[in-house]
């Protein structure tokens, strides 16, 4: 029998997921939890699960910290994040923390079931077309309160240095002089930074760096 655990605080969403997941196979047991502590109790007492579906925006705990706890405490249990926060830095960080997939809540039922089946088959599911662009008026809250290391969202050491200097207000020419690079090389790194953050301008990159509280303390 397939055994799943849904960790989601919104009752309507949780009930919808439970009902949908019950359609995966003839014999499916779907347990549910409205908070992280209850989820840990179920994992400790209900035997092995085939998959945990975790919402990032749970009350009382940073969603990324919760994912990290699950991966460390139950390494044999795959975890797929199901979240409305589907911008590129969030997806990248989730996968880097060991999630077996990132499933946007915007998916319809058929596509969500397909994503779950892919994870259950041992694959890592990444949504296509998830690269939402950061905007100055973007009011969606970031589901974490801690800082983020550059490598957690896919930035290399050099890209992190370039972004750090961008945040400090340096131009491409100034960055080139600071890092002893050609201006053309800096432009290549800037383009790579935009791609990693899912943005297409310097202003958007600075907004994203601020929203995610990227920690530049160890980039130099």
Explain this structure to me?
- This protein is of the alpha/beta class and 220 residues long.
- The chain folds into two domains: 2-120, Response regulator (Rossmann fold, 3-Layer(aba) Sandwich), CATH 3.40.50; 150-211, Arc Repressor Mutant, subunit A.
- Helix content is 44%, strand content 11%.
- The protein is built from nine helices and five strands, in the order βαβαβαβαβααααα.
- The protein has helices at 11-21, 36-45, 63-73, 88-96, 109-120, 157-167, 172-179, 183-197, 202-211; strands spanning 2-7, 28-33, 51-54, 79-83, 101-104.
- A five-stranded parallel sheet has the order 2-1-3-4-5, sandwiched between helices.
- Helix 4 (88-96) links the parallel strand 4 and strand 5.
- The longest helix has 15 residues, at 183-197.
- The model is unreliable at 130-143 (pLDDT under 50).
Quick summary of this structure?
The protein is α/β, with parallel strands linked by helices. The protein is built from nine helices and five strands; from the N terminus they run E-H-E-H-E-H-E-H-E-H-H-H-H-H.
Show the helix and strand layout:
Blueprint: E1 2-7, H1 11-21, E2 28-33, H2 36-45, E3 51-54, H3 63-73, E4 79-83, H4 88-96, E5 101-104, H5 109-120, H6 157-167, H7 172-179, H8 183-197, H9 202-211
Parallel strand pairs: 1-2, 1-3, 3-4, 4-5
